[in-house]
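Example A, followed by Example B.
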Amino acid sequence: MNTKKVIFSLCLAVPALLPAAQPGGEDVFAKKYIRSVMNRAAEWQLAHPKHEACTWENGAFYAGLYAAWETTRSRRIYRSLLDIGRGVGWQPCSRWYHADDIAVCQTWIDLYRREKRPEMIRPTVDTLNRFVSLPYPLKDEVRLIRWWWCDALFMAPPVLVKAGVTSGNMEYLRKSDEYFRECYDLLYNREEHLFARDVRYVIRNDSSDVRESNGQRVFWSRGNGWVMGGLARLLRELPADWPERPFYEGLFREMAARIVSIQQADGLWRTSLLDPGAYPGGEVSGSGFFCYALAWGINSGLLDRATFLPAVRRAWTGLNGCVNAEGRVGWVQPVGQDPRLNFSGDSWEVYGTGAFLLAGSEVIKLK
């Protein structure tokens, strides 16, 4: 028996064209509701900490938490972010060369821009200076590309671009371009307009190929959500006249069109994007990042409103069906590196909450 089929429907099934209301009758697009649910989700997650403070998981959560503060102006959220940053001395994690370990620096830079205290950005600048000037550590004497897994495109490029724009050091932006292109050339599938999670899932038409049960290539929802969310955060910062900006905008539009074409009827995306039948329920972390990126694309003028707004409406409605009364964001696949059927309504992770908060911060801006 195919165990992938033995799974019950995830979240609330939301018919695509019905009004977006919660069971209690609340309109999930009302600004008051959005602020309320974002505060509720943020408060719940702050009360249930997980992982070391400087990890990539929390890097995604803090990005959403800062966006929630921008949206709600909650003093509690802002104080919490300051307390977290002070608690780790505004440091990234230990590996200066690893994208995951600098993801938190996105938020340290955002806070520095408001507070203007040099100690808040100095560890980030010191780490990035090492990153752009020192040789990348070799593995078995083989040169590795810097960002060899697609998740890295959320973790690192926004940090480099934010730091470059903030400090005026454009070398950070040039290095980000160089390493982003390495990852793109290795992992982006130009037929499917999606990223393989890493080189294991790149199809070579030989015995090493890994495919889903329906024969399709393996494209992980959260992996591509990391890329779309990272592109939105990068493009928010990148100067309008930056030479590589057209490349990023073109990639964003291309991926957005593909992502919308594989959205499911409940508004969410499945853990494996091209084998939805084997993963019949929605997964919230990937879906949250897609909702965020698409809504940001509309708000920034990069995506056509008439084409993409219906997809955002379905996505935000579906996501809200996965938040319980306490504010816990459920149906989040645990830490991993590929599609799995290992989560339920009780499965939560800090990056799932981060993705939900980022989505809300852009949905509330839609006209």
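Example B, a separate protein, is given below in the same form.
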Amino acid sequence: MIEIIIALVGVALGAGGFAGYQRTKQVNGKNKIDRDIAAAKTKASDIVLKAKDEALRLENERRKEMQKVENRLAEREKTLDKKLDELDNRAEKLRSQETEVEDLKSEIRQIRTKQQEKLEKIAGLKKQEAAEKLLQMTERDIKDDLSGLIAKLQQEATDDAEERAQLILLTAMERMSSDVTAERTVTALKLTDDEMKGRIIGKEGRNIQALQRETGVDILVDDTPGMIILSSFDPIRRQVARAALEMLMKDGRIHPARIEEVVAKAQKQIEKEIKQAGEDAMRETGVVGIPKEMLQLLGELKFRTSYGQNVLKHSTEMASMAGMIAEEIGADVRITKIATLLHDVGKAVTHKIEGKHHHIGAELARKYGMDERIVHAIEAHHDDIEATTPEALVVRVVDAASAARPGARNISAENFAERMRDLENVATSFNGVDKAYAISAGREVRIIVNNQSIDDLSAIKLARDIATKIESTMQYPGTIKVNVIRETRAIEFAK
């Protein structure tokens, strides 16, 4: 029984303790919740305060920016007001100046009217006549000044033009680099041995006669050891004969039938060389559009020389130089280069056609439908025809520059001096001639005549007669200008 009572007491005490523990736990939980709520309220208050501070800071910054913008706008407004004031002042000045100009115009009109009225009163002239008189007086007053100004400008233009022309020529000559010597056409053929002369002549001269008949070249066999001479006015025939003889000597079979076959082969070979030479020259100078007939004649210049200067090399050199000068002065480069390349093409047929090579070349260019500017430049590259285009003047200049370079032409000083003397002697052989001077490297002879024995008409006839005699008695490249000068001098002495 006692044990039961003790057990019941223990249960009662346990239940009471558990109930007390539960009440204590509830009290502690409530206190913790209150503390958490208080902490959350404190934290929320801090956040609100920080947000208010940040909002206040942003508001202050925005107010500062707005203040700056307002200040800038106020400054711009002041600047605009200042500029408007300046514009108003300028407009006022312009209005005043316009007024002054109008006043001056009115004053000038009044002065002119008064002058016209005075002239009308003095000379009894009408208004129109007075105006013309006034203009004449003004022109007379400033005529000398204008003449002096024009003369000064002309002199300055002449000086500048001469200096610029020299600069262009020197630049073109410095840029142009080529050999100043050229191979001469071969007229003497070297034999392998002296026995070859007999084989070329053949039995009773049959071989040499066949060669001369087929080639049209005179073959001269003399006592010169190991050498025969080919003579012909046609350089192409001479070249064909040379090539044919070289083939025959190399082959060893020399008889009339073989000669005919070899000459035909040599002709084809030379024709091919001529065509190739023309195409090479055109390609080297960078021109196109040359008719094939003119190109053929151009290639023939490969075998033509003038005082030892190869005419084709002379022409290609000139074309390159002419292109440089034409580009500098604004002339047509294509026309200039083609005309320069073909300027001596008439020399290829001078042995067939009578006349001067530049006239022949111009006629050929005209015949084959070339541009008239090219025709004129070819025809005017010597002094007997006036050059009227820039392209023609360039051709004339480069022709002189190419031929005059040291070593370009194979002529000794003795031969040159002798030709100059012969030219002067031809001129002085006519009656009425006082003095004669060969100038411009023999391209002009200047003749001073006696004005007592030679009148103006006789001077014209004398120039023609001297030119005719020079053509018939002398050999020379190009043309020679005959310049007859007759002047009247009146001399008196004051005592």
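On Example B: The first strand starts at residue 188 and ends at 190.
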